[in-house]
Amino acid sequence: MMRFLLLFSRQGKLRLQKWFTPLPERERKKIVRDMTTLVLARKPRTCNFLHWKDLKIVYKRYASLYFCCALEEQENELLALEILHRYVELLDKYFGNVCELDIIFNFEKAYFILDEFLMGGEVQETSKQSIANSIEASDMLQETMEEYMSKPAF
Amino acid sequence: MKEIMVRAIYCEMLGYEASFSYIHAIKLAQQGSAIEKRVGYLAVSLFLNESHDLLLLLVNTVLKDLQSTNLIEVCMALTVVSQLFPKDMIPAILPLVEEKLTNPKEIIRRKAVLALHKFYLIAPNQVQHIHSKFRKALCDKDPGVMTASLHIYLQLIKNPDSYKDLTGSFVAILRQVVGGKLPVDFNYHNVPAPWLQIQLLRILSLLGKDDQSTSELMYEVLDESLRRAEMNHNITYAILYECVKAIYTIYPKSELLEKAAKCIGNFVVSPKINLKYLGLKALTYVVQQDASLALQHQMTIIECLDHSDSIIKRETLEVLFRITNVKNVAVIVEKMLDFLKNVFMEPDILFLLYVGCFPLLSDTYSPNNEWFIQTMNVVFSLGGELMHPDIPNNFLRLLAQGFGSEEEEQQQLRVFAVDSYLTLLESDTAHLPQRFLQVISWALGEFSYLKDGLEPCKVTKLLAKLLDERNVTSESRSWILSAMAKLSAGPGAAALALQVSERYSSSLDTVLRQQALELLHLSQDPELHARFFHLWHVQVDSSLSFLDSFVSEALSQGAAPYKAPHQRQEELRQEKALSLEPYSISLPVSLSSCSITDRQSPTLLSMSSSLSGNSNELKAGSSTLKLEGVKRVWGKEGYLHQQDAVEEAAQVEEAATPALPLSPQQGGAESQQTHGDLTVVEQEKQKLASSLFVGLGSQNSTFLMGKSDSTSQQFRRKTRAADSTSSGVSERSSSSSHSSCSDFLHNNLLEDSQNSLNTQKIGVSNGTHEGPVTQSFQTTSKETSPFLDAGMVLVQPCSPQTELRDFVQPGSSGITQTSLRSQFPPELSQLPHSDISLLSSDHSLSLSACRAYRDDALLFVIILSNCSQSSTNGLSVQLDCKHIFETFSTLIQVEPHTQVTVAGSVSYRAVPGHTQTLQFTDKLFLTDFIRPLTLSTEEYGKLWLSFSQDVRQNLKLIQGEGDPLRATLSALKEQLQLHIVDIIGSEGIVACRLLPDSPCLLHCRIHGGSLAVWLRSPLLSLPDCLLYYCQKTLEEC
């Protein structure tokens, strides 16, 4: 099971956080701090895996963003790497050539995509197409509702 | 509002407090339109914690949305439920989520399954009743739902027994997936549904673990996945890795193992660093079962050791650590220390290191004490304050108790320690970490007397110097002071101690001041000193048995019995869950059903049932597990390959020549050899390799053999552990009964009277166990019985009676079993008795014995028969049995034995003036002294609480038709004469007593296919012994 997923920039600014197990606020902040320092300190051409307490940290850099997730002991690191990659693919498909700014300005969308992809720390849906479909379905609803709401009330 | 909420989320993410917006988030989720609801739910799931109070306000919203007809709303509700939901609220929404499992939309089914998975993780008891629905989800026509259900199964199958029947379906699914039968959009980089594959592989490895028949089902499909996953992409490597792991977890098959080993090879030599990492990881996993596999990759491992990435280095060390054995331990530990010095402090590596060399020393006959102490010194000074506190503690315990080796060696170890510490203290001490100082001072305080010619005064002086060091913390100071207190008895030391204590008795630290004053008093009064340190070996009654009477008194006055904390929690949880029912008014939950569950208040029975012996499992933490993996390797090697090692060393000496002749077992190195010219660096590497891989797996053993070898070894170890208690006891008993057989019972029992057929003259003795034998005659008044004036030997030490009846029947030659039986005294034949067995015989006399079970005693009947035609004279029987007679009431009650030996001899005169003796031995088992104890359930409950000794164990269940518990218990009853007090549901209580009147209570419960037995008795080892017989009985059934 994945414990948490963090997205942060090269400067260590958090862009997205998702916790799959309940943690107190203080603990979360500490973990975020630890992760950014640990991951940012890694030199290029080292492996993408780290150990942190009893968790395995898998991270990958896409452009200026670091995607970093924590796994439990028995999980497969390579697979987690692919989960991150699949998430990036999904974002890419949704935003069309995704960049950091997309995520900054539409981070709630990024959360919604993540919610469709992972649920409770496990992969929910691996089919790219069906995720896109469900996101689109809720977005459609959103648009129509927005239109509906923006209509003048008689 | 939506925009504002999004801004608030962003603020919170950047680390600014936005708690004012929490309530608005909930409101938004509750009242907003669909789009606002979505943002509201997102905000709630990001802001709130599972224990947050505001979350209660969300429950109703979730309930409403779950019942909504809008697909999107239901999806949102399910998402938030799986993200965060208060544990005690689960019952409220569970029926609704369950209902969603049959929803026509696959996305809702999928989410519902994942929500249930989440529920299972946080509260497994509450979803127990829907396991059958999971099976339905597994057979769902939509692959997405099926994938989701696998998450649940992966959790469930941690306890695999009840899911073995699903193996076939999992294998079928995997075969379909591998065969590419799934829709194309499940493909990922042209690999069909990799996540699904990996999940299935994991499940299969759990199912096939230690189970040959199940494993056989999956060999084929595993082979196929190995074959199919040949593309060069990360995801295929992930599948391969899982495959290899599965192959090494399930019951081994040689071809697959070969392929898997080749796969690992590809990983390790890969230039991609992530794959290298994974390969090392796989190696760590594999070498636990087959150390020789590391040989093939030794050069790679050596290269990895110098890798620039410290993570890779760490993994390499982990591999090395697992192949540690007697010969390479020094090299490996040196490498690890290098790593520590150069890179950064990592406490867990230190711990590994410690765990690495610690069992080595205890395992092999302590190859080098000096080396051990010195290594530990380095570890302590390097580790500093970061070190795990267990390390110094364990080390001190090791010093204090030794590791079971010779006393002499322990002393040697201690002297070494004292020596090295003294040298350390004499040099500069400023850089030593505090933990190390504490260890030093303790060791000096305890053991410095062992070193000849060392004045305590000198040690005290050194310690005093240390005490004045500025950077020493007050905690270390108090360690030093207590060490000085131990040493202060010596003549010179007293004065110094006085000086020190005066200085510190005005210290601001109260602990230090107290210790200084103690030191003062102890050093001034040698008598007090001696008495004080003598007192240290006080025995502690850990079972708190002195409170038993208090407890039973309190119970009889109506106090509630003690419940273990976790049980209380469980009850509390149940109550809580129930009290929350009103929240779900909309749900069709009948009140009566909850009141029934409420009634299930803990009876005595359920109280006693809950604690199953988990403590052992708990103790086996990760470190000990690793330790075990290592031991297996060492245990196998050791002495045997010493010669190889010498040879290799010799070959390394010759390394001047470019082509290094290596012994055949270094298969991996041979490829290097073909390269021809080796650089100096490579030579060094090879040297290192040969020293690292020394003693690893003999050259001839293929890895398959290594594997099966290790499993069998494991098995052996297990059985040994199981036997250890019983065999230990029986050995003890037999040895003590052999030694010093007292002539306690020395009576002239029989005098032959002429040729009459049924004549007996019997001496009756009535001995008490402490005094000399007093003889008295007691004649039974049964005139009618064939043995008219049959006397009885009533040996009555306390109360287990042994009646000796002997009668001689000259003239009846060729005795058969039946004829013996016919001569069996009728009053005994009514009692249950064992078969008459012939103990010994010679040409004129044969001796048989039989045990008859009276309700209050065991009758040991010796039957002598005269098989010759002539008469015998001057018969005397002598019995030696220390345990039964002398000590039955005292010793056995302290330590019951599973069996005792009765030995004896009969002497007689066949020819006048010529005495012959006939030796015999027989065994009496504990079961002979066990009688049923008739009790009512209430009495049982009372008794149960008043006993302190308890033992728990899982036993085999007898599988037959009908209730397995009933069948098992009645089998035990038959064989061991137990009394079944009551059977309620899956629990049964059984009682018995050891003669004369030591009760033993058994509480049995069906627990996951085995019988969890919990025994209690006032006697120390009675439960142990009884358990042994229970085990034996059930195994024979």
UniProtKB/TrEMBL annotation, chain A:
Matching Gene3D superfamilies: 3.30.450.60
Q: Which PROSITE patterns match?
A: CLAT_ADAPTOR_S
List each copy of the AP complex mu/sigma subunit domain by range: 1-140
Q: Does the keyword Transcription regulation apply?
A: no
Per UniProt, the keywords (alphabetical) are:
Coated pit, Cytoplasmic vesicle, Golgi apparatus, Membrane, Protein transport, Transport
Q: A single GO BP annotation from the record?
A: intracellular protein transport
According to the UniProt entry, its GO molecular function terms are: clathrin adaptor activity
Query: Its topology with respect to the membrane?
Result: Peripheral membrane protein
Please state where this protein is localized. Cytoplasmic vesicle membrane; Golgi apparatus; Membrane, Clathrin-coated pit
Q: Which domain of life is it from?
A: Eukaryota
One matching Pfam family: Clat_adaptor_s
- Can you name a GO cellular component term? AP-1 adaptor complex
Q: How does it assemble?
A: Adaptor protein complex 1 (AP-1) is a heterotetramer composed of two large adaptins (gamma-type subunit AP1G1 and beta-type subunit AP1B1), a medium adaptin (mu-type subunit AP1M1 or AP1M2) and a small adaptin (sigma-type subunit AP1S1 or AP1S2 or AP1S3).
Q: Which family does it belong to?
A: Belongs to the adaptor complexes small subunit family.
Q: What name has this protein been given in UniProt? A: AP complex subunit sigma
Give the organism the record lists: Denticeps clupeoides (denticle herring)
Q: What gene does the UniProt entry assign to this protein?
A: ap1s3b
Automatic annotation (TrEMBL), chain B:
Q: Is DNA damage among the key words of this record?
A: no
Q: Where in the cell is it found?
A: Endomembrane system
Cellular component GO terms, alphabetical: AP-4 adaptor complex; endomembrane system
Signal peptide positions are none
Broad class of where this protein is predominantly found:
membrane
Could you tell me the Gene Ontology terms of the biological process aspect for this record?
Answer: intracellular protein transport; vesicle-mediated transport
Stretches with biased composition (Low complexity): 724-742
Bias regions of kind Polar residues — which residues?
Answer: 704-714
Ordered alphabetically, the record's keywords are: Golgi apparatus, Membrane, Protein transport, Transport
What does the record give as the function of this protein?
Answer: Subunit of novel type of clathrin- or non-clathrin-associated protein coat involved in targeting proteins from the trans-Golgi network (TGN) to the endosomal-lysosomal system.
Family assignment? Belongs to the adaptor complexes large subunit family.
Q: How does it assemble?
A: Adaptor protein complex 4 (AP-4) is a heterotetramer composed of two large adaptins, a medium adaptin and a small adaptin.
Name of protein: AP-4 complex subunit epsilon
Q: Which organism is it from?
A: Denticeps clupeoides
